[in-house]
Amino acid sequence: MGAIDFIIVAIYMVAMIIIGMWFQRKASQNIDSYFLGDRELPWWALGASGMSSNLDISGTMIIVALVYAIGARGFYIEIRGGVTLIMAFLMIFIGKWSRRANVMTLAEWMEFRFGSDKEGQLARFITAVTSIIMTIAMITYFAIGGGKFLDKFLGIPEFLGLPSHFWAASILIFLATIYTVASGLYGVIWTDVFQGILIFMAIGYVSFKAFAIDLPQEFMVSMPLKESAGGGFQAYATSFKDWTSIIPKWNLNIDSSSSYSMYNLFGVAVLFYLFKVILEGTGGTGNYMIQRYFAAKNDREAGLLSLFWTFLLSFRWPFIAAMAVWGVSLAGKISDPEMVLPAVVSTLPAGIKGFLIAGLMAAAMSTFDSTVNAGAAYWVKDIYLTMVNPNATHKQQMKHSYIASILLVISGLFLTLLIKNINEIWGWITMSIGAGLLIPQLVRWYWWRLNGYGYAIGMAAGTVSAILWKILAPEALPEYYAFIFSSLLSLLGTILGTLMTRSTEKSVLKNFYEKTRPFGIWNKVRAEFPAEFIEEARKENRRDIFSIFFAVPWQISLFMMWMMLIMKRWDNFFITLVLTIILTTILYFSWFRHLSVKSKK
């Protein structure tokens, strides 16, 4: 980095701190202000912030690595989490269902679903603990990617026996922590909006430059080798036609010495990832993503923020494709696929380099600030105020908000010393601990008999199994083994815990169903309501079920369309463009039109 690059990055960092501190007084009025922005934030700002929070350095480095090494088909691998297909489900029904609870955190939602007696309190506590663990894992994931990226440019030496990328991550995290802790969700949302502008400027520049690159018909890519094969990296030959193909293969035939050979059973892996995402989507999400829906004003704005969020998020994919194309054009200069992103940025001229680094730092910090703010809410709202000090003063509540944020950051940062690479922590988050939480999260919406005990036992079993898997399981096992292990133990705990204990109070179930109106096995509860109410709920349910079958392929085709444009694979571009237009039209009539004319508060 030259002097002008450092100046640009410094201006960006100062601007972020100023914006965050500007909202400190408003955010510190009470914890509703701090964690939900008093539900006064506009839908477009929540959606723009959501997009910024989903576009992080760590995830971008992983996806660029997969697309660079495997080609456009690498997109399908990231159905496991990077494509964020859960947005389709949030857009159609999960977002509005969550908003109707009128709560602050997912853990608080548990009392809405299971009541405020022992089962509800247990479900709330377990959800808070598991969410805090997930928050620490996400901070670790953020720190590894951000540290690797910045280390490439800052040139920080090892210090006190700790690696240079640890200190690079510490700098990034320290700066983001300042405005996150000070300003709560107000600062998070408005700094994310500002950072989103920087991100889009970076996307535009990179996409424009990469579009001018014409790749040869034959070229080489690099893939990492397994530790058993000596580690390091090896070059592999591919063709432009195969590299830009979007038709999934059943088998990729990657050399068995490569660590990417875990994706050789490609058809099985993609179907498995799709199955996982469908379960995950219909079960909903937590942490910073769901926090934006809790902060929405009503059903209509929950839908609008989802649509805007998804549309903006689609522009991540021309950036991914551009970086992969640019990486291929650098020929033999790249060995580690996870370093394609910083390798491309390092080739840029002074000034432009600083601007792009600031944009990518914005992507990283927007993920971090949302994660920390949501994680701290679980401690303050669901543990401290419910179990430690229910009569805490405003000053005590805000003090714990600050302390919780700082402790989460420190825990996540020091875990980076135990994790080898980005894909390792991302695979564990999406395929192990995420799987352990999936079953109870799913069943809570669709089966009236699930109670707080079953939910809590299922969540605890899934979390413990994921941690044990990380400690004890051999590294060479495929990711879906971890998923199967954690999800099966979680399923067993959920069913046994539910059937061995009494059902939730009927009054609690009636209140939940009346406000949420979910579909699923609710006949016993539904029978308590008038026929007119039941018919209205079923009519809404039928529209939502119909729409989700088109929302998922709509999101996939929209994202892939931009990739094909940047890769200049014109046949695939026009196919995905036509498909996107058709699916958009269907969704307008089946979903958006009804959303526009009816708003339930």
Can you tell me about this structure?
The chain is mostly helical and 601 residues long. The protein has a single domain (3-597), classed as Sodium/glucose cotransporter, CATH 1.20.1730.10. It has helices at 3-22, 24-27, 31-36, 43-54, 57-70, 74-77, 86-99, 106-114, 118-154, 164-211, 240-243, 266-283, 287-294, 299-313, 316-329, 340-345, 352-388, 394-415, 422-446, 452-472, 479-499, 506-516, 523-526, 531-567, 570-597, and strands at 218-224, 233-239. Helix 4 (43-54) packs across helix 10. The protein starts with a helix and ends with a helix. The relative contact order is 0.17.
CATH topology: Sodium/glucose cotransporter
Structural class by sheet pairing and helices: mainly alpha
Query: Could you name the CATH class?
Result: Mainly Alpha
Helix content: over 70%
Give a count of the beta strands, DSSP E runs of length 2 or more.
Answer: 2
Architecture per CATH nomenclature, i.e. the level-2 architecture: Up-down Bundle
Characterize the largest beta sheet: strand count, sense, and whether it forms a barrel. Answer: 2 strands, antiparallel
List low-confidence stretches: 597-601
User: Count of DSSP helices?
Assistant: 25
Which strand order does the major sheet show?
Answer: 1-2
Instruction: Round the Cα radius of gyration to an integer and report it.
Output: 23 Å
Morphology call: globular
Q: Helix and strand string, N-terminal first?
A: HHHHHHHHHHEEHHHHHHHHHHHHHHH
**Gap between N and C termini:** 51 Å
CATH homologous superfamily caption: Sodium/glucose cotransporter
Counted up, domains total 1
Instruction: Kindly report the average pLDDT value.
Output: 83
- The proportion of strand residues reads under 5%
